[in-house]
Amino acid sequence: MKPMGGKSGLWMLAWPIFIEIFLQTLLGTVDTIMVSRISDDAVAVVGISNQLFGALITLFTTFAGGAGILIAQRLGSGRNEEARTIAIMGVTVSTILGVAFSVSLFLYADPVARMLHISRELIPLSHVYLTYVGGGLFMVGMTASLGSAIRNTGNTRGPMYTGVAVNVIHILLNYILIFGMFGLPEMGLSGIAVSTMISRLIGVAVLLYMFSSAFERRIRLPDFRTFHRKLFAEIVRISWPLGLNSSSWVLSQLVIYSFLAMLGAKELAARTYLNTLESFCFTLGYAIAMAGQIQIAYLFGAKQTQEAYRAAYRTLYIGLAIVSANVLLLYLFGRSLLGFFTADPEIVAIGVSLLALNLLLQPCKMLNMAMGNSLNAIGDTRYTMVVSMISMTLIGVGGSYWLGISSGWGLLGIYCCMIADEAARGGLVLLRWRKRKVLSQAESQFAGRQQGVREKPGVACSVEL
């Protein structure tokens, strides 16, 4: 793994992550449009099913994310074998979790559909989608863990190329199978399920090949039986706060969307369209934050605590500059962009009235993401979990209901609370980083080990001989 210091290292890590996420978002939009060609019922089934899948995938990405942080730290400290072992266990556990949920969805698709309150007339469609797409969900877990391990070795291009190829294959197969091209029968929603399974399988195969040679010693199939209790406990220790953090965010967003539904269909539609535009606006900032996390974890593992401390601010400043420029463009051209989604003047007016608030919301999100990821990179995941859960519950959810629903501020009140939530979390994680608590502890431990080595010259001499 090459050293990851300075701006060039950050950009080299960030741009492939950006390309991967941007094209996934773009192709996901195209995918939704193609589903809409089947029927509105198909869109409804896919939409609500993907909400469930997203919540389950959080479990996979959480464990994989924790393992990824430790991989970068171990590589930074030169402990390549430990990094290799952590990567193997991360992939194994994510796969086991994925298989358990996949089997459950495959066997109990109809009860799950009823639990999601899918109407009776949509049960046949949901059965197809939940059974086959949900049944292959374990491949998403494998993709997440393999991609995370590979990225945290410094190779962000490999997962990017794979992700782009898989999404393109998925779109092409969708077109062929949904509409029955080249003499094939029209498969409708079943075609989407088959397309998803095939494209995911191809992605897993490519990433497995890439993963096998990601470390100095090649990874072979028998190696997946590897289990190291101490390292596994370390992965769990750093991962479970990330998991609660991510789960809390998913839950808070679902609750806030339920508040939006209470306001009315037009408000919900306006927020949905704005969310799509905001996603494109924030993509590069998110990639910078993810790249910063990898870089800081590597530097922290290499005991370069001063450089790790400065790297967080470099990530923040670059991210803020990019996100601020993007959100300014969104503010200037937002009315025209909303016109691509809807011709309803009332929905456009609601969306336009919120564009100015994005000038505050997106930079606050960047502050929270950059500094929160920096704390996660050095293992301070419990603090970010506690701050996030309290802020999202009291300010994000509680404030949104109070201002948006009870006080009658509507969507404006909900947006104000979203800004306050992001600003509060961002300010607290920034304050935590400035105090350097974990970094100072690491420096003291490192100094103690150095002092211990100096006090044992005989050992040093024997090593040199």
Automatic annotation (TrEMBL):
Listed InterPro entries: MATE_fam, MdtK-like, YsiQ
Compartments where found: Cell membrane
Keyword Transferase included in the entry's annotation: no
Keywords from the UniProt entry: Cell membrane, Membrane, Transmembrane, Transmembrane helix, Transport
Keyword Kinase: no
Topological relation to the membrane, as annotated: Multi-pass membrane protein
Annotated CDD domains: MATE_like_8 (cd13134)
Top-rank lineage group of the source organism: Bacteria
Membrane spanning stretches: 12-33, 53-73, 85-109, 129-149, 161-182, 188-211, 238-260, 280-300, 312-333, 339-361, 382-403, 409-431
Pfam families per record: MatE
Name of this protein: MATE family efflux transporter
Organism of this sequence: Paenibacillus phytohabitans
